[in-house]
Structures are given as C-alpha cells and as structure tokens.
Design goal:
Helices cover 61% and strands 0% of the residues. It is an all-alpha fold. It has a domain at 1-100. The longest helix has 14 residues, at 362-375.
C-alpha cells in the first residue's frame, strides 16, 4: 500500500475501526496523528494515542460527543495529563479531571510541565491538599503565587511565604498576616528584608521570634536583642545560630535552662573553654550534646568516654573523632547500647568487631557479624565468631 493511500485511510472517517486500530501501530508519526483525529477510531485506541498526540485528540469531533453521551466517561490518567498540558482545555475535560481522586490531582499539581492556565485554574480547587501541592511546586508562575497568597487557609499562605519564587512585595504583605505561622515563615526566610526582620524581633508570638532567631541572615544586632528573650525556645534557637558572636555564646552557656546550654554545647562555634565548662554540667543531655559535637577536642571526648551516664558514652561511641584507644575501651562497656554503637562507628578496628561478633549479648553480636559480612562479603564466615 502506498504512503498516500495510508494517509487517505487514516484520515477518512469511513475507514473501518479495525483498520484504524492497525494503522495506530504504524511507525509513521503523521499516520498515527491522523488516526488520533479520526472520529471512527475505537475509544481505547484514542486514549492510547492521546497520550502522545493530545492536540489531535482534542481536535477529534468524537471527543465532546463521548462526554455528552457519558459525562462520567473515564479517561486514563496519563492521557488526561497530556491533554492538560495544552493551553486551552474544554470544560468537560476539567470536570473529568476533578472526578479523579485527590491523590491524582496532587500529583499533577506538582508537575513542572503544566501551562500557566492550568495552575491558575487548579489554584481555585476546593481541595486543600490540591492547593497545597500547587503551593509546593517550584515551577508555578507568579500569577498563581499571587493568587495563593490570598488563600483563606493560613497553611497555604505559609507555604507561599516559604516558596522560593515569592517576590519581596508579597513577603512584605505576608509579614503582616494575622496568623503567626505565616509570619514565622517570613521571619525565618533568608530573603526577607532586614526592616521586616527588625519588626519580627518585637513580634508578640514566640514562634515568630524563634523562626527569626534561626534565620541564618538575621543581622547580629537583632540576634543580640533576642539573646535575652523570655522564651527559652527563642534563646535555644539563638544559641544554634552560627552568626552569634562568641561572647554571647559564652553568656548563653550559663543559661538557667538546660535546653539553651544543650544548644550551646552542640554549636560548632563554641570555644573549647566553654565546652570544657559544659562538660561538667549536671544535666546529662548537655554532656551528650558535647559528645556529639564534631568540634569537641579529643581530650574532652576521652573524659566523656568515662561519663557515668550511658547516653553520654553512646554519643562518644558514635562520634567519628573518638580516639581508637577509647573505642576499644568502650567495646567492653557494661551497657549493650554502647557496644552496639561501637559497631556502627566507621573507625572501629576489625579486631574489635571480631571480638564483638562473639559477644554474649545477641543484639551486639548480630550487629557486629552483619558489619563484618558487609566489610568482607567474600571471606567472612559467621560461624568463625559464634563462640
């Protein structure tokens, strides 16, 4: 059959459906496009071809008739997605989309390839989860961002406040939002103008001030205001901010609340002198934070390896900077949690792992054996350590 006759068959509305079904498998793209636009093509073939050729499917005069006959007509999800990537989509297709479950709508709302008109339409959805999914999409246009910034639900406005494409003009509007969670999103955002960060320092809501305290771009003069905040969580967030001057870290290291002292103990900029003082803290969680701090000096780690609290010794066993000699000591610890943690430390010597593989406590030996099998998949024999 000549190419011209194939074209005639593919475009002729009187061509039998079975013949069109065969033509739908033709390698020639132009033939398949004509079959997609042919009103005599079987419906299931249309759906399959429509994924590849949505514009031709939309041109098919059969499509609106199918929906007129059955408003609840099922269209496969992949085909529907392709159709919605066109700039203009008829109402009957929008209704078909809305009949899909919310999970499907959420998935499509996060698709980066949808046109502006689709996002603007779906941003009006009555489903909160769908609007939320759109607000999370990094590819939505500015018009949709502006639309969702006015959403009645504060969770959507907060998501827009956190969106990477939200312009400063909208951030300033959201900074005055009545909901503290929305204001908190703006207070914690690195791109928020300093003049608004200064206002947030006086915000009546502690959550907003806490977000401000954790913002890596909050200027030092604002951080210094928050150091003396009455809310312990605000002071704790300040204690973790890497821009806080050393003299303020030292002051917070003497805070009455262990939450704040713990944050200072974990802060990478805390001085050795300050860490040494905190290593004597009565609160074990503060000492755990020092044991976890990758900048803690080795002499301090060695001291904490002898701590009376097993949680501190577990943290030392996990720290990759703990000297090998102390890993060996901790491998004999009376607490099984410490011995199990020694197995996971990347610097634990093989001979220690071998010893732990024969440990009387099953949880310890099992972990050590699994580690040895991973290290030596071809030579390790579990029975060698079962004693």
């Amino acid at each position: 059959m000549t190419p011209d006759s194939l074209f005639d068959l593919a475009s002729n509305p009187n061509t039998p459906p079975e013949q069109l079904r065969e033509l739908a498998t033709c390698e020639d793209v132009a033939i398949r496009q004509l079959v997609t636009a042919n009103p005599n093509t079987p419906t299931e073939v249309l759906w399959k071809l429509g994924k590849e050729f949505p514009a031709q499917l939309l041109e098919n005069p059969l499509l609106p008739l199918l929906f007129l006959e059955n408003p609840s007509l099922f269209i496969p999800s992949n085909t529907l997605v392709s159709l919605f990537q066109l700039e203009r989509v008829p109402c009957y297709l929008k209704q078909a989309f809305l009949r899909k479950n919310v999970e499907f709508q959420q998935t499509i709302a996060q698709n980066p390839n949808m046109p502006v008109s689709f996002f603007e339409w779906l941003a009006q959805s009555s489903e909160l989860l769908v609007r939320w999914a759109i607000a999370q999409n990094p590819y939505i246009p500015l018009s949709t961002i502006e639309q969702l910034a006015k959403d009645s639900d504060s969770r959507i406005r907060r998501a827009i406040g956190l969106h990477s494409k939200t312009p400063v003009s909208l951030l300033e509007r959201l900074a005055q939002d009545s909901n503290p969670e929305v204001r908190g999103a703006i207070a914690g955002k690195p791109s928020t103008p300093v003049r608004w960060l200064e206002r947030f320092a006086q915000d009546p809501d502690a959550g907003v001030r806490r977000a401000l305290a954790g913002n890596r771009n909050t200027p030092v003069h604002i951080l210094e205001q928050l150091v003396q905040d009455s809310d312990v969580k605000v002071r704790g967030a300040i204690a973790l901010n890497r821009n806080l001057p050393v003299h303020w870290l030292e002051r917070l290291a003497q805070d009455a609340d262990a939450t704040v002292r713990r944050a200072i103990a974990y802060q990478p900029n805390t001085t050795t002198h300050c860490l040494e003082r905190l290593a004597q803290d009565a609160d074990a969680t503060v000492r755990v934070a020092i044991a976890r701090n990758l900048n803690s000096p080795k002499p301090l780690l060695e001291k904490l390896a002898q701590d009376s609290d097993p949680g501190v010794r577990v943290a030392i066993a996990r720290n990759p900077n703990t000297p090998t000699d102390w890993l060996k000591q901790l491998a004999q610890d009376s607490d099984s949690g410490v011995r199990v943690t020694i197995v996971s430390n990347p610097n634990t010597p093989v001979d220690i792992l071998q010893r732990l593989a024969g440990n009387w406590e099953h949880s310890v030996s099992r972990c050590a054996q699994a580690k040895l099998e991973k290290l030596f998949p071809n030579s390790y024999r579990r029975k060698d350590w079962d004693f």
